[in-house]
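With this grant's support, we have paired protein sequences with backbone structure tokens. One protein thus recorded is set out beneath this paragraph:

_____
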Amino acid sequence: MALTLMSPAFTQDKPIPQKYARSGENLFPPLKWSGAPEGTRSFVLVVEDPDAPRGTFRHCGIANIPSDWDALAESADTAPENTARFYKNDFGNARYDGPQPPRGDRPHHYIFRLAALDVPSLSIPGDAGIASMWNEARKHVLAEATITGTYQS
């Protein structure tokens, strides 16, 4: 069985509700996954907007998600300490910041990418940023799954 990722808040290629956008409540949308491959020791999650005017914009990066987790709750930034670690996003915040495309721009695609890793944790500091975390994580990927939502201001 392949690694799969879904959200009860939105479906593939459909709009992300406003409460998960920066102009709304800026809540992290709930996510669920299944089919982690044998040998999974942790997960990472990256949320990116490839349609941003200046290139891919990273809205969220979380590493060291325990291998026995199969979901992230709405507003996952309240996760217990000493577990998942948030990395600095392109807004400069170590948390989730939701969609915020330029007003009047076409709908942007927000890719939620979950990767199963063969290591229990990454030792990259949180202020290193999502790109650095993802570069390190890619060395340990066993499987990936994505779900993409859209948003337009």
User: Anything to note?
Assistant: The mean pLDDT is 93. The chain has one helix and eight strands. The first helix runs from residue 130 to 137. Helices lie at 130-137.
